[in-house]
Design goal:
Layout: E1 24-35, E2 42-53, E3 57-61, H1 68-75, E4 83-88, E5 91-92, H2 98-107, E6 109-113, H3 124-132, H4 139-152, H5 168-180, E7 186-190, H6 198-215, E8 218-222, H7 226-230, E9 234-239, E10 242-248
Parallel strand pairs: 3-8, 3-9, 6-7, 7-8
Antiparallel strand pairs: 1-2, 1-4, 4-5, 9-10
Helix pairs in contact: 3-4, 3-5, 4-5, 5-6
Bound molecules: adenosine-5'-diphosphate (ADP) and magnesium ion (MG).
């Protein structure tokens, strides 16, 4: 699972751009992000070096303002570094054009946000279909794909409901279905349990772990919840825009 789709293929196929299983899917070298300029400039990330292997589940933790969301936006091609190199598979995102970044966001990356970000006037099924529609499926195929994903996240039979008719946990499940409907290689989740009570948050985390285990996708999860972090195989701590430390789960059977 180390292929990264190139931005030029419009037929829904995946181009393999990198080789063996142990490859980094992400490689960051001295990544810096500065918002604004002059006296009001804010350095959100500074000199971040990081490799993420294909198939890893990584939690990013740190206090508010430490740069977690900025890092996730860079990983997702929503923004570009101000300095340094950030490669996804073989593609240097800092130098990629807008069309390539849009293609990466469409095919290679799924996003889940704290606020769910569903379109309130569309049903759950339509919210998922919207994410797959740019790939050019006909209406029946779109509906089938959306229904299958909603089924997978435990929302079979709810495709016709509006977000306002769903609980917070159910809305986040719709958002997860939307993020995964194009079978991305990377799922980026920014505080996905931040708007949920702790029991519901646990269920959402459990669902993400299950999807991670069965799919082989890479997940990068931003959280300020220490319990979530403690449960993650790899935890990266950010402070003031820098990597302040890292914990890895001991190998299975050890400790
Ligand atoms: N669009 C922006 N313009 C200016 N400053 C920003 C912007 N986004 C984030 N920041 C600043 O960058 C820093 C890191 O923010 P962020 O990445 O959102 O942190 P976190 O997600 O850890 O709370 C903060 O000081 C924040 O105020
Ligand atoms: Mg944030």
């Amino acid at each position: 699972m180390t292929s990264v789709t190139s931005g030029t293929d419009t037929n829904g196929k995946r181009d393999t751009m990198s080789g063996n299983e142990n490859d980094s899917i992400y490689r960051l070298d001295s990544v810096t992000k500065v918002y604004g300029s002059g006296a009001t400039a804010v350095t959100a990330l500074e000199g971040v070096d990081l490799g993420i292997a294909s198939g890893e589940l990584v939690a990013i933790v740190g206090s508010s303002g430490s740069g977690k969301s900025t890092l996730l936006q860079l990983l997702g091609g929503l923004d570009r570094p101000s300095a340094g190199r950030l490669a996804l598979g073989g593609l240097e995102l800092g130098r990629a054009g807008d069309a390539d970044l849009a293609a990466i966001r469409l095919r290679t990356i799924g996003f889940v946000f704290q606020q769910f970000n569903l379109i309130p006037t569309l049903t759950a099924g339509e919210n998922v279909e919207v994410a797959a529609a740019p790939l050019g499926f006909d209406g029946a195929t779109l509906r089938d794909r959306a229904a299958a994903m909603l089924d997978r996240v435990g929302l079979a039979g709810r495709a016709g409901h509006l977000p306002s008719e769903l609980s917070g946990g159910e809305q986040q499940r719709v958002a997860i279905a939307r993020a995964l409907v194009n079978e991305p290689e990377v799922l980026l989740a920014d505080e996905p349990t931040g708007n949920l009570d702790s029991a519901t948050g646990e269920q959402i985390l459990g669902l993400l772990r299950e999807l991670w285990r069965e799919s082989g996708m890479t997940i990068v999860l931003v959280t300020h919840d220490p319990a979530i972090a403690a449960d993650s195989p790899r935890v990266i701590r950010l402070a003031d825009g820098r990597i302040a430390g890292e914990d890895r789960e001991p190998l299975a059977g050890v400790g």
